[in-house]
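Today's session is about reading a structure prediction critically. Students often jump straight to the picture, but the first step is always the sequence itself: look for stretches that repeat, for charged clusters, for runs of hydrophobic residues. Only then move on to the predicted structure, which in these notes is written as discrete structure tokens rather than atom positions. Here is the chain we will use throughout the hour.
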Amino acid sequence: MANILVPTTGATDWKRFLADPEKQWKRGYSAMAAALSWEAADALPPEIDALLGGSVELMLAIPEHKVALPGGGRASQCDVFALARVDDATIAMAVEAKVNEPFGPTVGDWMSGASKGKIERLGFICSLLGVASPPPETLRYQLFHRTAAAVLEAERFKTDRTAMIVQSFSQDHRWFEDFAAFTALLGLEAARGTPLQHILPSGMPLTLGWAVGSAAFV
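Below is the predicted structure for this chain, in token form.
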């Protein structure tokens, strides 16, 4: 059953959850880098821990966690979904791991010839985040649906806070400008290794962050 989880015995246990394991499970790719990083930490990786502030305890981490969104059958698949405690608060967090991979299509490309389902989905996400729909076409759609996944899981698990963190293992910070453009839509100025705080329309605090992972895992 999908809702019954078994603890990992090492990074290789993450491989079977990938959409294309033979293509994606390689050194230099984000899937393996994230798995090695999280397994080595046996907690939150230090660069993510630092973004959350306070005393942090990882309670649960799920690789390749799928979150259903309205308007279609394809879920938002988080590289890692985590539940953590930060001081006296609980937080639900979606992590998007990157090495050299881009964030995928822009909103404009994704919405080209859009079906009713896509229009519904984008409208739902924008309402959740408190931004106008449609958003600027040049922004990356993946950042929208991954953040929405974090918010929805925070609501489902009834946590106090939510977060969407990009865990980038690129030492030259590839695609940071796309993350910065997304955060600017929320009135936030991105900086690597710095948490950005935003209050959602629901009143829930959202943390966005760009965490720089160790090159040792690439």
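Discussion point for the tutorial: The chain has seven helices and six strands.
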